[in-house]
Amino acid sequence: MTPALDQPYVYRMRELVEPDWTRMPGFADVTAAQWADAQWQRSHCVKNVRQLREVMGDLLTDDFYADLERDQTERATMSMLVPPQMLNTMVPATGEGEAGMPRAGTAYTEAFYDDPVRRYMLPVFSDRRTDWPSHPHATRDSLHEHEMWAVEGLTHRYPTKVLAELLPTCPQYCGHCTRMDLVGNSTPQVTKLKFLAKPADRHQQMLDYLAATPTVRDVVVSGGDVANLPWKNLEVFLDKLLEIENIRDIRLATKALMALPQHWAAPEVVEGIGRITAKAHARGVQVAIHTHVNHVNSVTPIVAETARNLLDAGLFNIRNQGVLLHGVNDTPADLLDLCFALQDNASITPYYFYMCDMIPFSEHWRLSLGQAQELQHAIMGYLPGFATPRIVCDVPFVGKRWVHQVEEYDREHGISYWRKNYRTSIEAADVDALSREYVYYDPIHTLPLSGQRWWPGQVDLDSAHELAVEAAALSRLASVGSKA
Ligand code: SF4
Predict the structure, then answer these.
(1) Residue 342 phi, psi dihedral angles, 5° rounding
(2) Could you give the CA distance from residue 280 to residue 252 in angstroms, rounded to a whole number?
(3) HSE toward the beta carbon, residue 81, CA cutoff 13 A
(4) Helix, strand, coil % (nearest 5) of the chain?
(5) How far apart are CA 43 and CA 265, in angstroms?
(6) How do residues 120-143 score in pLDDT, each as one tens digit?
(7) Measured from the CB, is residue 231 less than 6 Å from ligand 1?
(8) What pLDDT is attached to residue 93?
């Protein structure tokens, strides 16, 4: 036998375990049949602190509930919505008193505070940074998707692909949601943008645009999360999409595959996937699901079995696009454990990890570009090449760039400079679009001391100037776009 080498990461095939939901006082009497029912899951989601207390009871101390309440009032950009399936993956050891399982009260609360899934699904006030809770250049629509709407909700950023936001809701709300401007209910801090047109009209406008734009071949059917669209409505849209000759790739965006797998396990949904994929296959079109799993604890047997059933029903692929988050998945082991569980147990292909976008109050989650580059280096060579995820930065006005594609990187001030090789839909007449440098900013607390000292002096002057320049450029581009 070859002696084991001392490796930075040691691979072990994982056996998945569904955590025992009856450890939570509010779910103590819930049966397996209830748990497997999508409607039961939806109607027992935790939407506020009172409901969390009803489920968790004395497992958590009053201090935690107060911390959460304060965050909801003063910081949260997303309202609370956690399905039982996700709640069950927080502090997931099975059975009170078993090894590694803290008992109720202070020890359990500490474990809950430290839990990676809790950190992004139930953020608390004390999680957030107090020095720079938001980056000075954070914005509500940090990727400027609305400015690139070809019709309402259809973002045309890349030359051959579009993002179709069919609806503005999800069955779960992630605290770090990049689409916080639009998705979910308003919070005390954020009044959400509302679609103006009726859903059926918007969907038809999208289909009309795609039929009239033969350069687009690839549609991300998203939201929100398509699991919140009644299946029959989604199937109607997909049927029409499949009629458009130029559409060759369709990707259904749904975090619910792991947050509420019961939706995707429902027989009417699996049968519908079978019909759609059979039609797509006959036309040479690939239909895939793109899901969003950030931590290995979310990959449970129910999730894995649901994913494999959907592949059996005819899906071409299921790919994962996680978000890189401090305290959730910011070590090589976190990323590799997750990727191997997805690949080995659930037949889900690790695809991307996005750097967390520059939305308000996200500094405690964000990593620097340098940290992301180190993580990319650390995870190379373990997974099969086709399942080795790329860590990408979604650069405003550019799109996804692999973290090693940066043109210049001022590490002292945390400013990276990027270029692109295509025009977005609002840059038809912008002669400088391909030569301009686009910027992305590291969290200030990750900078060397000299950089941290530099920023306070820049904020008023630079952000006022930059916002004015940006507003002028956008108004020029919007008028160009509307004439194009
Ligand atoms: S599932 Fe996606 S769109 Fe919905 S809240 Fe989470 S990140 Fe946002």
Answers:
(1) -65, -50
(2) 13
(3) 25
(4) 40, 15, 45
(5) 17
(6) 999 999 999 999 999 999 999 988
(7) no
(8) 75
Query: What spacing in Å lies between the alpha carbon of 10 and ligand 1's midpoint?
Result: 32
Residue ranges in 314-368 assigned as alpha helix (H):
332-345
Instruction: Answer whether 177 contacts ligand 1 (Cβ < 6 A).
Output: yes
Q: Which residues of 206-227 are buried (b: 16+ CB within 10 A; e: fewer)?
A: bbebbbebeebbbbbbbbbbbb
Please state the rounded mean pLDDT for residues 10-38: 96
- 325 touches ligand 1 (CB under 6 Å): no
The pTM of this model reads 0.93
Q: Compute the average pLDDT of residues 373-379.
A: 98
Nearest to 249 by CA among 346, 158, 153, 345: 158
Query: Whose structure tokens read 């009856």?
Result: 22
How far apart are the C-alpha atoms of 155 and 144, rounded to whole Å? 9
**CA 73 from centre of chain:** 23
What span, in angstroms and rounded, lies between the C-alpha atoms of 419 and 81? 37
Confidence check: pLDDT of 67 > 80: yes
Q: Which long-range contacts (CB under 8 A, 24 or more apart) does 465-471 make?
A: 466/137
pLDDT at 471 over 50: no
| Ligand 1 pocket check for 174: Cβ under 6 Å | yes
Longest CA–CA separation in the chain, Å: 70
Dist CA 40 CA 45 (whole Å): 9
Amino acid 105: pLDDT: 81
pLDDT of residue 312: 98
**Token representation of residue 15:** 């056996």
- For 146-483, CATH number? 3.20.20.70
Amino acid identity, position 309: N
Start-to-end CA span in the chain (Å): 67
**Bridging pattern class, strands 161-165 and 438-441:** unpaired
| CA 303/CA 351 separation, integer angstroms | 18
Gap from CA of 462 to ligand 1 centroid (Å): 31
Q: Output the CA 454–ligand 1 centroid distance in Å.
A: 34
How long, in residues, is the chain? 484
Question: What is the reported pLDDT for 464?
Answer: 44
Rounded to 10 deg, the angle between the 369-379 and 332-345 helix axes is 50
Instruction: Determine which residue's CA is closest to atom 1 belonging to ligand 1.
Output: 255
Looking from the CA of residue 254, the nearest atom of ligand 1 is: 1
Report the half-sphere exposure of 284 (CA within 13 A, side-chain side). 6
- DSSP for residue 82: B
| Residue 54 confidence (pLDDT) above 60 | yes
Model pLDDT, residue 470: 44
- Residue 142 is given by DSSP the state T
Residue 285, φ and ψ in degrees, nearest 5: -105, 140
For the chain, the average pLDDT equals: 93
Q: Where are the domains of the chain?
A: 21-127, 146-483
pLDDT tens digits for range 342-360: 999 999 999 999 999 999 9
Joined tokens for residue 390: 């790329």
Distance (Å, whole) CA 284 – CA 269: 22
